[in-house]
């Protein structure tokens, strides 16, 4: 699985977890079967673009970011992301060989007959092996089984200090994280503090923002933030970089509105405590 595909898969799994739907229930709300969703969410195959849109619809979330991830992953999955070599772009004519007479094309003597026999035997062996493989049952056929967060290809790519300042989705930390708190700002934007035990890191995600808004997150280390730059950013989830965290760490996120007259609003949560929602704003 490419890094682009892994990033898309992590985002899909996170979105599906937020719906609370089982695979069977998800299949009832979309045109795709339970086994298909199992493959998509475990990274075994790339979902169709429509499946990504359907999941966003079921989750009642904007589809802009997920579709952007799909657009990046799709060429890698189909092998179209490889850059053609100069030889492939400008094929050169192969040197012409003089035509051969029927006599020169046939192997001569005992050695030639031996080569023909060996070639025939090789063809029979390869053909027989291919037939056996064709007739064997497909043990890799998709099965209707529950999702596993322990897929080797979806293992987190960092932990603790190694995650500091890095993308939670690209480093596969966004699979089944804990939501520490969810906060709605006075402008209507949402800010969530998230924590991954497997990665030993926390980050903030935001949505419903406006161009120019900024969200920052901090634990024991540096402050990391995300800036809402354009309309596409306002229509999807946006994530800060990660900050190293552990049970007992206090995570703080601050929302800075684009408006000069708007006040900064901050929210805090402690790793290991029960999740909370909607805290009053704390101007800073």
Layout of strands and helices, then pairs:
Elements lengths: L2 H17 L3 H7 L4 H8 L7 H11 L4 H14 L8 H4 L12 H4 L3 H27 L42 E7 L5 E7 L4 E7 L6 E5 L5 E4 L3 H4 L3 E2 L3 E2 L5 E7 L8 E6 L5 E2 L7
Helix pairs in contact: 1-4, 1-5, 2-3, 4-5
Overview of this structure, please?
The structure is a single chain. The two termini are 44 Å apart. The protein is 34% helix and 17% strand. The strands form 2 sheets. Strands 1, 2, 3, 6, 7 and 10 form a 6-stranded mixed β-sheet that branches. It has a 4-stranded antiparallel β-sheet with strand order 5-4-8-9, with no helix packed on it. It is an alpha+beta fold and 284 residues long. It is built from 9 helices and 10 strands.
What are the low-pLDDT stretches, counting only 5+ consecutive residues below 50? 83-111, 125-153, 278-284
Strand content: 15-25%
Kindly report the average pLDDT value.
Answer: 76
Rg result? 27 Å
Order of helices and strands: HHHHHHHHEEEEEHEEEEE
List keywords for this structure.
four-stranded antiparallel beta sheet; disordered C terminus; 10 strands; 284 residues; six-stranded mixed beta sheet; single chain; 17% strand; alpha+beta; 9 helices
């Amino acid at each position: 699985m490419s890094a682009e595909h892994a990033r898309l898969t992590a985002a899909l799994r996170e979105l599906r977890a937020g719906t609370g739907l089982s695979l069977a229930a998800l299949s009832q709300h979309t045109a795709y079967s339970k086994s298909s969703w199992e493959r998509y969410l475990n990274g075994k195959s790339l979902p169709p673009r429509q499946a990504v849109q359907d999941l966003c619809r079921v989750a009642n979330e904007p589809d802009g970011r997920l579709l952007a991830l799909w657009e990046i992953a799709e060429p890698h999955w189909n092998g179209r992301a490889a850059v053609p070599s100069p030889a492939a772009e400008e094929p050169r004519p192969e040197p012409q060989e003089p035509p051969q007479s029927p006599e020169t094309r046939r192997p001569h003597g005992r050695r030639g007959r031996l080569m023909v026999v060996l070639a025939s035997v090789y063809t029979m062996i390869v053909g027989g092996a291919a037939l056996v493989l064709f007739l064997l049952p497909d043990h890799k056929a998709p099965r209707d089984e529950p999702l596993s967060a322990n897929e080797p290809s979806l293992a987190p790519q960092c932990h603790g200090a190694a995650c500091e300042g890095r993308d939670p989705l690209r480093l596969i930390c966004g699979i089944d994280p804990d939501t520490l708190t969810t906060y709605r700002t006075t402008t209507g934007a949402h800010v969530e503090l998230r924590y991954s035990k497997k990665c030993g890191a926390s980050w903030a995600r935001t949505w419903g923002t406006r161009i120019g808004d900024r969200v920052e997150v901090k634990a024991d280390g540096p402050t990391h933030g995300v800036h809402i730059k354009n309309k596409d950013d306002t229509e999807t989830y946006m994530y800060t970089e990660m900050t190293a965290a552990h049970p007992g760490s206090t995570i703080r996120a601050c929302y800075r509105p684009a408006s000069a007259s708007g006040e900064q609003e901050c929210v805090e949560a402690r790793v290991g405590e029960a999740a909370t929602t909607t805290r009053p704003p704390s101007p800073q």
